[in-house]
Write a sequence for this structure.
């Protein structure tokens, strides 16, 4: 089955530790995205990547880092510099980058709790 | 700056009836795209329907239709013949430019379908 995989579904970390969230897609999509969702709120864009080895900051990139070494993978690292890391993180992908009108497909999400 | 407003925090609808979820937007870009997504309690975002700013007709997808009123900057989602499985959070989102990548989301509306 084609789709987007995010692991793990639930993640617990101590404050001050970096943590990496996995996102893998087998849809052959060029573009990938990371969003953050806080309770009762909409999604906010953290980072996005239109092609391999290239990525851009979204609206709330501070305290986060990404890499895009392979087309199918777009891991997100939540660093200790992120002041409020506890949230629900959603990864998405779409067929094209700039120049495409296609909708974004989302993974099941990772719920990160930092104490 | 773009902005999406969903003024209804929560809505109730009787099973088999139609319901309208409101969305207004604000942008100075003449080219834009509007999306509606459904988020069940599992957390995954499901694409429902898309409307481009230059589309002449309102978008429809099965039981979903988009009431697009460009002059009023509104893009309301209409769900006909509501089903219990429609109970979820619904998000309106806007893409910057017709061919952009960044999506800006509203705060969402929780819909509960009553039997």
């Amino acid at each position: 089955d084609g789709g987007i995989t995010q692991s793990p579904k639930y993640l617990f970390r101590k404050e001050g530790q970096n943590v990496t969230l996995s996102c893998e897609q087998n849809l052959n999509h060029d573009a990938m995205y990371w969003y953050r969702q806080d309770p009762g709120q909409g999604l906010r864009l953290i980072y996005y990547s239109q092609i391999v080895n290239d990525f851009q900051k979204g609206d709330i990139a501070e305290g986060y880092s990404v890499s895009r070494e392979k087309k199918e993978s777009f891991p997100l690292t939540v660093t200790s510099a992120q002041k409020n890391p506890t949230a629900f993180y959603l990864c998405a992908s779409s067929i094209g980058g700039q120049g495409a009108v296609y909708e974004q497909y989302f993974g099941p999400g990772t719920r990160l709790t930092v104490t | 700056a773009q902005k999406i407003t969903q003024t209804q925090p929560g809505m109730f609808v009787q099973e088999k009836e139609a319901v309208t979820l409101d969305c207004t937007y604000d942008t100075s870009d003449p080219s834009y795209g509007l999306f509606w997504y459904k988020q069940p309690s599992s957390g995954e975002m499901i694409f429902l329907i898309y409307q481009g700013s230059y589309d002449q007709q309102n978008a429809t997808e099965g039981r979903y239709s988009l009431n697009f009123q460009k002059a009023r900057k509104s893009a309301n989602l209409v769900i006909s013949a509501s089903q219990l499985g429609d109970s979820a959070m619904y998000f309106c989102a806007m893409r910057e430019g017709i061919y952009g990548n960044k999506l800006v989301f509203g705060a969402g509306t929780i819909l509960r379908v009553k039997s």
Notes: The longest strand of chain A covers residues 43-51.
